Every structure is written in C-alpha cells, then in structure tokens.
# Entry
Amino acid sequence: MKRIERVRLYPTAGQRRRLNFALDVTRQLFNALLQQRRDAWRMRRYSVSTKEQYRELTALRAEDARVAAVYRECQDAVLHRLDLAFAAFFRRIKQGETPGYPRFRGHLRWGQLEFPHGDRALKFNAEQTKVKIPGIGLVSLRKGRRVPTFGRAWLVRRGTHWFACFECERDVAPLPRTGKSIGIDRGVHVLAATSEGRLIGNPRFLARARLLIERFQRAVSRKRRGGKNRRKAVRLLARAYERIKEARRDFLHKAARKIVNASDAIVLEALNLRSMTRSAKGTMETPGRNVRAKAGLNRALLDSSFGLLRQMIVEKAVEAARTVVEVDPRYSSQECARCANVAAESRRERRYVCIGCGFRVHADVNAALVIRGRAELRPAARGASLEDLTDPRSVPDAGAELARCDQEVAA
Ligand SMILES: [Zn+2]
# Structure
C-alpha cells in the first residue's frame, strides 16, 4: 500500500508563471487529443489509438516551441489520463449507466502536473528544503518534512497555493493492542457514529465557513463580468473553499486517528451503491429538514466527508497493522443491536427505540453497533457492552446532539 506525502511549495513569481504555463500547455494538449479522437470517430468512425497519439506528440514537440518547453513525461501522463477517461466512459456504457463522454477542461478544471517517474524528474537538495523541477527551477519547500523514497509524483494547484505530492511506500509500525473492536456507521443525521457511542458530527466550523462563502459569493455576483475586480473576488472565493477543505481534512485526520488508536479491529460497511444512496434516503425520510437551500453546502461537504474519513481510517489502520473488516450494511439502520429485530418503525428520527425489546439509543449509534455485530468477532473482542449505551444521554456527544434535535422539534 502506498502513502502520499504532500508538501507545500513556495514558488517565486517567475516559477509560479512557469507552473501556470505548464498547466495551460498540458490542458490544451488534453483538449486537443480529446478533440482528435472525437472528430475521427464522428467523421470517419475511426478510433485513434494511444500509440498514434504518442507518435504525434513526438512530432508536435519538434515543431511547437510551446509544447517542447514542457517536460515530456508530464505530457505522456496527459495521454494516459485521457486513456483512463475513455476507459471509464466505455465501462459505464457496458454497465448501462449514463455514459458521460470525457469532457473538455476549462482552466478551473485542470490543476495537476503529473510526473509518472517522479524520482527521475524531481530532485531534492541535501537538506530537502528545495526541489528541482524540470522546466520550472529550484522551488522552495515547506520546512521540516522528510520525504522517503518515492516513485510517482505530481504537483497540484489548489486555489493560489501549490503542493508537491510524492507516492511513497508505507512503513508498517504496529500500535499496541487494545483488545477492542469498533463499528463505524455512515450516519444519516451526523457524519458518522461509532459503536462506542461517539458521534462524529458536523463540526461548527463548517457552519461558519458557509457564512464566509456566502459573503464571497455575493461579492462575486456584484462585480462586472470579465472585470478585474471579479477575477479578484473569484480568487478570494476559491481560497475560502480551499481553507474549508483544509480544515475539514485536519478534522477528519484527527477523528480517524482516534478511532484507529482505540481499536484492534475496525468494522466498516462494504462500499456499494446502497451505502452511497443512504443519505439521500435519509433526506426523503425527513423531508423539509435537509432540503433547505442553506443546508446545501453543509450537506455536500458531509456527503463527501464520509468517503474521506473512511479512506483515512483504512490508511492509518494499514500503517498500524490493525484489522479492517467490511460487512454488508443492508438494514443496519432498522435492525436492533440488542435483539436483532428488524423494523422500520423502530426508527424515530434520531432515536432508535426497538419495538421488540425497548432498546433505546441514538439511531446512528445503533447502526454502528449492528455493523460491529455483523463482523462476527469473538464476544471477548467486542469491548463496550450494550448496557452502557441504553440511555443516549449517557454519551456526552449523543446527549448534546439529542438536545439540539429536541430544540429543533420544539421550535
Ligand atoms: Zn430490540
């Protein structure tokens, strides 16, 4: 398994210009290669092969100084990326999904320069304070990072910032055993819930961030189209989005770290279509709650957050030699964690009150308990007993969440 080391770059104004130039050239190349394939098929029913385009790229570099100025392997990577886009397109056709033909990229949809053989192209100085990038120069790096041996590498532009990403081998350093296992549920009302009763909620900074973004969006819409001030406002808006994403990553890293440190085995729902549509179903169950326009950004961030959290848990678990178990999540939100009775009526908004045995708990925590139960671990490895959790208010996070929910109902 690979690990990505991401390091901030501090390019000078000139280096920044060259980086943006390389992005422009590779993007135009991508669009040109795409257009060539599309036209050849439309007009002559001819499929242009990767090999042909590779040869044409070589010819193009000989006659176009702009193209020749950009590192060759970055351009090979563009061709590879186009291949992947087409492979995904044909796979979707085969599976009867909406095909979605590969798209032409505008400058906002293109922010990555890839070096397939990064170790050949990018060279650190001895102290690892700078990295030499072909065609760009010797660029300063954020201090204090030690990047181990790496293979593939890429540079990304995020808003106005640049980062270098290095794909490294992951070192396994086992953590001490805790004798516990934990189930994680993708919550309907919160981002995720653990079988120990912890709710990983919608952190408050997201709500604050929403206000900030709304303000920048209004600023953009007040400026004249195509004007200099509008460009400035768009840059501020993009930067605000980036900061929120950074804050969210930080928050999720910490949540994942807590989970992995605390348990030997982590039980997750297997990824499938059902779990992807769960949150949408939750929205239908509580119409009017999540459809407010204001909730849009929070919702979108929450939906994409679970995937990120899951990925971070798995990566940290592999590094710590923890076990990750995947189970079928179907009906985990309706099943009782104590008596296994399955009934939709047991779900009451954020609470789960079993119609069979009267078990009462936060609905998402119940699902996390069910998920852990499905891993069929030995009872001795199960950790916290169900009795500790029967009163949702006994769990600090769940108590606060339920109190808020009661207030909402009362209002
Ligand atoms: Zn029950």
About this structure: The chain has two domains: 2-169, 181-410. The CA atoms of residues 191 and 306 lie 6 Å apart. Residues 336, 338-339, 341, 354, 356-357, 359 surround zinc ion (CB under 6 Å).
